[in-house]
Amino acid sequence: NVLQAMILTDGESLVLTPTYHVFEMNKGHQDALQLGAHVLEVPSETVGDEDLPLLSLSASVKDETALVSLTHLSAHDDLDVRIDLRGRAATVVRARVLTAESASDFNDPSAPDRVAPVSLETRIEDGMLSVRLPAHSFATVELNLG
């Protein structure tokens, strides 16, 4: 019994799951120094009696590369995010987003790439990194700080 797997096998088929992609997209955080990251004005939704923050992020740096990971939980709405890079010149090396048409989509042998990372459009202007996160998405942005 497997509740969550990174790779599914079925006979001769081998399928990478969304969990695999999240781990792969986050690998730049390994052996890196955590950066302080604070989210201001986090949108939320009320679920039952609880307010659920719809955005979380983490950031780290290793050598001259920073990695910012963002999770957007809204099932329906896109979210524009602006990140203040505070004093470091930065250029985007790579930005990717993991999402699908439906939050319940999954990969299987008939559609092994239904949920897979794709390029994410970003912009840096006046020291602010801007991204638009689709509903129910996970994204990473790699920045060169040199």
Describe what this molecule looks like in 3D.
With 146 residues, the chain is mainly beta. It has a single domain, classed as Immunoglobulin-like, CATH 2.60.40. Helix content is 5%, strand content 47%. It has one helix and 13 strands, in the order E-E-H-E-E-E-E-E-E-E-E-E-E-E. The model has no long low-confidence stretch (mean pLDDT 94).
Would you kindly provide a brief summary of this structure?
With 146 residues, the protein is mainly beta.
How many helical elements?
A: 1
Main beta-sheet strand count, sense and barrel state:
6 strands, antiparallel
Low-confidence stretches: none
Structural class: mainly beta
End-to-end separation:
47 Å
Helix content: under 10%
How do the SSEs run, as a string of H and E? EEHEEEEEEEEEEE
Top-tier CATH class: Mainly Beta
Overall number of structural domains:
1
Compute the CA-based radius of gyration: 17 Å
CATH topology: Immunoglobulin-like
